[in-house]
Structures are given as C-alpha cells and as structure tokens.
Amino acid sequence: MRPGETSNGKKPNHDQSIVSKIALSIKSQDGDEVYYRFPRDKRLQHLFTSYCKQKKLNYDAIAFVYDGQRVKASKTPLEMEMEDGDSIDAMMHQDGGGYALVMT
C-alpha cells in the first residue's frame, strides 16, 4: 500500500474524512466521564439520549455544555467544530438559586 491510499488501493475521499467518527466524552458533575465514538455528521441528540439511558437520567433534566455554551441537540459535532478528544459537560438543571429580599 502506498502512502495516502486506503486498504482497497484508492485514495481517501475528502468527504469521507469529514464524515468519520470523532472521539468525544461526556463528563458529569461528579467527575464521572463516559467515552464515545460518534459520527461527525449526526445530530448530538442521539449521543445525549444514549448517555441519559446509560446513566438512567431524565433527558429533560440535563443541560449539555461545550466550551461554556449550552449545546443544541439539533447540532452536529461538525457544526460545533468539535475536535477529537473534546469533552461535553452534563449538568443537572437547577431551579432557583436567586435571593429573596425580605423587608421588615
């Protein structure tokens, strides 16, 4: 096999490298990390639902955060410009957290 050729003797198609799988991890608030190989062109909703099923979590109770921004489940890793080895944080939704002004 010559350099730059695949096992079938053909040069790799540039489109195939874009569609290849990416190594991603999802990290929970308690530090537990789950690793996945995921297609770059598939919506992240599939990854998030898989994670929630594996961890027995309610999908609607989790917020997924990448680079400090909440991730839309309709986006793909390609659209989010994710790279191999990137990590997504899984955070529990929290209601409240504000303060109450008490006047006496």
TrEMBL record:
According to the entry, every stretch annotated as the Ubiquitin-like domain falls at 22-97
* InterPro entries on file: Rad60/SUMO-like_dom, Ubiquitin-like_dom, Ubiquitin-like_domsf
Q: Sorted alphabetically, which PROSITE patterns does this protein's record hold?
A: UBIQUITIN_2 (PS50053)
Q: Which residues form a coiled coil?
A: none
Give the source's domain of life in one word. Answer: Eukaryota
Q: Which SUPFAM superfamilies does the UniProt entry name for this protein?
A: Ubiquitin-like (SSF54236)
Protein's recorded name: Small ubiquitin-related modifier 1-like
Q: What is the lineage of its organism?
A: Eukaryota, Viridiplantae, Streptophyta, Embryophyta, Tracheophyta
